[in-house]
Design brief:
By secondary structure, this protein is an all-alpha fold. Helices cover about 95% and strands about 0% of the residues.
Length: about 40
């Protein structure tokens, strides 16, 4: 029981980590495009 709960928590944390990486990538792309557009 505890083991499955721990595994599900790991899955959830990795899911949030992937979402954060995707959001960070989108922000970086937006910043880069703004930088290139301003120049």
């Amino acid at each position: 029981m505890i083991n499955t709960h721990f595994n599900s928590r790991k899955i959830v944390s990795s899911y949030f980590l992937i979402n954060n990486v995707i959001l960070f990538d989108i922000e970086v792309r937006l910043m880069l495009t703004k930088f290139y557009v301003s120049n």
